[in-house]
Amino acid sequence: MTTMVVELYDALKEAGTSEESAKKAAGVMADYDNRFESRFDSMDRELSDIKGEMKLHRWMLALIILAEVAPFLGKFF
């Protein structure tokens, strides 16, 4: 059990909940916690992919601008 779930378990026991109900509720909270952690991990991976693509697009745009501007500047120098 994670720290949050142990605290929930202890709070339920102090409130007078039965052992079985407290364990079941703590287990359900652990499942929710794991589900959200896995969602956040997948979102972090997707965000990293997007950041990589954005970096590539910036380089491509810089090269296109350079290819368009260089001939124009060549006329002056």
Assign an overall shape. rod-shaped
Order of helices and strands: HH
Beta-strand segment tally: 0
Strand-pairing-aware structural class: mainly alpha
In DSSP terms (H or I, runs of 4 or more residues), the helix count works out at: 2
Organism: Candidatus Kentrum sp. FM
Protein name: DUF1640 domain-containing protein
Please give a quick description of this structure.
The chain has two helices and no strands. The longest helix has 56 residues, at 19-74.
Structure keywords:
77 residues; mainly alpha; 2 helices; 88% helix
Describe the structure.
The protein is mostly helical. The chain has one domain (about 5-75). It is about 90% helix and about 0% strand. The protein has helices spanning about 5-15, 20-75. It is rod-shaped and about 85 Å long. It starts with a helix and ends with a helix. The mean pLDDT is about 90.
Topology:
Blueprint: H1 3-14, H2 19-74
